[in-house]
Design a protein that fits this description.
The complex is a heterodimer. Chain A contains 15 helices and twelve strands. By secondary structure, chain A is an alpha+beta fold. In chain A, the strands form four sheets. Chain A has a five-stranded mixed β-sheet, with helices on both faces. Classes of the chains: A alpha+beta, B alpha+beta. At the A-B interface, helix 5, helix 13 and helix 15 of A face helix 1 and helix 2 of B. Chain A: It comes from Actinacidiphila alni. Chain A: InterPro entries: Cyt_P450 (IPR001128), Cyt_P450_B (IPR002397), Cyt_P450_CS (IPR017972), Cyt_P450_sf (IPR036396). Chain A: It holds the Pfam family p450.
Chain lengths: 396, 63
């Protein structure tokens, strides 16, 4: 039986539709209220939307495994070996442990001067020009340079790799659940690129993450070359795409709320809260998939063993049971755990770097152009699990 | 307000250290430690660090 509201309107949650891409939040509200366990028979998944349910499912990796990919379209399987986002302990713990060091506070803090310099350089250029595509040139451009620097890509390769990433995440509207041939080709090119680079670094290491990984061992065995490649691919994508979404969505939220923006411009100590609230209110990574390893009972029904289950972070983050006036953006909200970085063992390993980059990006924007405004037609990213702008033209 | 970290729960992600470097640091084994255990009651950045911890290892106590 299809889910309906009390007055008989059908509730349809299909993350692959344009309507949902434009504004998913009314649908999320209906899901939370009337269909907290939702079943989409056509696409073949269940969905959880309440804060308590999402949090509990994400915290229980034994019942809700990531091993069958955390994307409905299974695109994470294209990263190759080593991409621990789809792993379970103990392997997950070991590989993640290797990467965690690279994103430790000490290392992340050392990146701050580079970040500030890059953000200032870009912003000065934009102000002189009077306008910018803030999503593409700033929110994507900045993380692209930083993650490239961390992994060890030479600057001249960055534009080509940016292009490949863009091809990898592009989908055909007709069949959005399947990776099109060009996305698979781009994945091959990215893996080949990192594989050659790892090979080179094995012979002549430098001060970068790929050199470290090329020489790394797990407690039980040395890291395989395919794992080095897959890890770099995954970190590269996560370090650009999800992060650029967080910066863009914060820029956009503040543009829609000029009074709060003025407060943050006058008092930069409010910027971290503005970023955190944007993550709650409009998380760039809206949802992830898991697979039930056994029958899981809910008041409204059962997710059967093997059932693909979507956990909607962005719906949970506006649940009024947890967040008074959850639909409103409010940088003065008392601190509370939002789920935009995930929950449980798969909590975002790059969260400290993401928070730092977003904070520096927003601080710098507000310093140079506190009253930036819309200039032209923005364009959304077309991808089922991502909600952000691909192009967001602003005047500065 | 007193701040404590449960070393058994901490897994060294360092979100707290990034949020409030004057209150938290990582020790040689990569676990979070409190370097300033008495802070102003209700300090917003400390409360943000509490909720940002992936393993809910940080607690505050009003004396």
């Amino acid at each position: 039986m299809a889910a309906t509201t009390p007055d008989g309107k059908p509730i349809e949650y299909d993350p692959f539709t344009t309507a949902l891409m434009i504004d998913p939040y009314p649908v999320y509200r209906s899901l939370r209220e009337y269909a907290p366990l939702y079943h989409n028979a056509e696409r073949g998944f269940w969905a959880l939307s309440r804060y308590a349910d999402v949090k509990a499912a994400a915290s229980d990796w034994k019942t809700f495994t990531s091993e069958d990919s955390v994307d409905l379209d299974r695109s994470t399987k294209s990263f190759g070996e080593g991409a621990f986002v789809d792993f379970s302990p103990p392997e997950h713990t070991e590989i993640r442990g290797l990467v965690r060091e690279a994103f430790s506070p000490k290392r992340v803090r050392a990146l701050r001067p580079i970040l500030v310099e890059q953000a200032e350089r870009l912003m000065k250029e934009f102000v002189e020009r009077g306008s910018a595509d803030i999503a593409w040139e700033y929110s994507s451009g900045l993380p692209m340079q930083i993650i490239s620097h961390v992994i060890g890509l030479p600057p001249q390769d960055v534009p080509l790799m940016a292009e490949r990433l863009k091809r990898f995440v592009a989908r055909d509207e007709a069949d959005p659940m399947v990776l099109p041939p060009d996305a698979l080709a781009a994945a091959n090119e990215i893996r080949a690129y990192f594989s050659a680079m790892a090979d080179e670094r094995r012979r002549s290491p430098r001060e970068d993450l790929i050199s470290e990984l090329a020489h790394a061992s797990l407690p039980s065995r040395p890291l395989r070359e395919a794992e080095v490649t897959g890890l770099c691919f995954f970190l590269f994508l996560a370090g650009v795409d999800n992060l650029s979404g967080l910066i863009t969505n914060t820029v956009s939220a503040l543009m829609e709320h000029p009074a709060q923006r003025a407060e943050a411009a006058a008092d930069p100590s409010l910027v971290p809260a503005a970023v955190e609230e944007a993550m709650r209110w409009d998380a760039p990574l809206q949802m992830m998939a898991r697979t039930a390893t056994r029958d899981v009972e809910y008041p409204g029904g059962t997710i059967p063993a093997g059932g693909r289950t979507v956990i909607i972070w962005a719906a949970a983050n506006r649940d009024e049971r947890e967040w008074p006036h959850g639909e409103e953006y409010d940088i003065h909200r008392p601190p509370k755990r939002q789920l935009g970085f995930g929950e449980g063992i798969h909590f975002c390993v790059g969260a400290p770097l993401a928070r730092l980059q977003s904070t520096v990006a927003i601080e710098t924007l507000l310093k140079y152009a506190p009253e930036y405004g819309p200039a032209g037609t923005p364009q959304r990213v077309v991808k089922s699990n991502i909600r952000t702008w691909e192009h967001l033209p602003v005047s500065l | 307000m007193r701040v404590t970290v449960d070393p058994g729960r901490c897994d060294g992600y360092g979100n707290c250290v990034m949020t409030v470097p004057d209150v938290f640091d990582l020790d040689d084994e990569g676990r979070a430690v409190v370097v300033e255990d008495e802070v102003e009651p209700g300090r917003a950045d400390v409360l943000r660090a509490v909720v940002a911890c992936p393993y809910t290892a940080i607690s505050t106590h009003e004396d």
